[in-house]
Amino acid sequence: MPRFRPEPPHTHGGPSRTAILLVNLGTPEAPTAPALRRYLKEFLSDPRVVEIPRWAWWLILHGIILNTRPARSARKYAQVWLKEGSPLQVHTERQAKLLQGLLGQQGHDGVKVAWAMRYGRSSVAEALTRLKAEGAQRILIVPLYPQYAASTSASVMDSVAQWMQGCRNLPELRWVRHFHDHPGYIAALAASVKDHWQRNGRPERLLISFHGLPRRSLDLGDPYYCECQKTGRLLAQALGLETHQYAITFQSRFGRARWLEPYTQPTLEQWGREGMKRVDVICPGFVADCLETLEEIAIECKTVFLAAGGREFRYIPCLNERPDWIAALATLTTQHLGHWLTESDQEPPAGGDRARALGAPN
After folding, report:
1. Edge-to-edge, what's the strand order for the sheet holding 136-143?
2. In total, how many domains does the chain have?
């Protein structure tokens, strides 16, 4: 088998195109147990996601998890599945289209915007191959994770690097490491909360919930916890909140190991028992609604809070297609594109043919 994939047809002296690839986590193809099994197998086989010895994890994954979890997860996905498909995929695709439109309005018509999923389809490799076939020679990779983590942002770049290993004629690449404190992102979050409060009134407390990671990740040097804390602090400052008016927690704990604390669900249970009447929850670690926000937070955590004695629970949706978020995304990407936006097309070699480019005699 050849080491490199065949190169797309190339015209010497053709335009050098620029592209943006938005990448989110991934989603099963359908809310069914077989589809979830395929998705979870790919996701949980990533050594970036689960950092325990491979042989031990293989036994757990194939002996227990893939035989028990797919059906349970499929039932959860079925509760939030949209007519167009998975919420995460639907929102990510819409974000890409809106960003494409806004960049065009700003005069950047030549920039192509595409989207991909780290796990499942459309994969990072599939998206990069399409962009390359369309003539993209400069590609900005944008993992849609505001806070950097090895298990998310770095895993995206692993998939990019794997694709590069099979590519003979590499495009120029850049990537966005994180945007946890980007002014446009924070402003869009704050505006979404203010809009929600204007419609529904203010709660007794705002819960800012991030996806959890094993506590060990912090000990090993992963900056995720610190970046979550900064995002939460900046959001609270933008909203004018005192420290007793909000809390930062972590959700989606899996297994028996200690994860980043405090945990979201136990916090809500405690608040309910203490007689808190209303709480609002926002999940800034996700820029698009997904299973973890629509089912885990808006359904499961709401049930827990009300059962513990709380009276009113409101979930504040992710940024999704908010115009201020798309504007912030346009600012973020154009800042990273830099001179790519104004760089002129490369001139063809003298004579414009491959023989002259290689220095062959006339």
Report:
1. 111-119, 17-26, 136-143, 172-175
2. 2
pLDDT digits (tens, 9 = 90+) for 165-216: 999 999 999 999 999 999 999 999 999 999 999 999 999 999 999 999 999 9
Its pTM surpasses 0.85:
yes
Confidence at residue 1, expressed as pLDDT on a 0 to 100 scale: 73
For 48-62, how does the pLDDT look when each residue is reduced to its tens digit (9 = 90+)? 999 999 999 999 999
339 among the known binding-site residues?
Answer: no
The CA-atom distances, in angstroms, between 106 and each of 102, 103, 294, 298, 340 are 6, 5, 33, 36, 15
Q: Which of 337, 351, 3, 362 shows the shortest CA–CA distance to 173?
A: 337
* CB 100 within 8 Å of CB 113: yes
CATH number of the domain that 305 lies in? 3.40.50.1400
Q: Does residue 309 sit in the same domain as residue 246?
A: yes
Give residue 78's identity as a one-letter amino acid code: A
> 116 in a domain, yes or no?
yes
Half-sphere exposure of 312 (CA within 13 A, CB side): 11
H-only helix segments in the chain? 33-44, 54-60, 66-80, 87-105, 124-133, 153-164, 183-200, 215-219, 224-239, 264-273, 291, 302-307, 323-337, 354-357
Share of the chain above pLDDT 90, in %: 88
Domain that holds residue 309: 183-316
Residue 292 among known ligand-binding residues:
yes
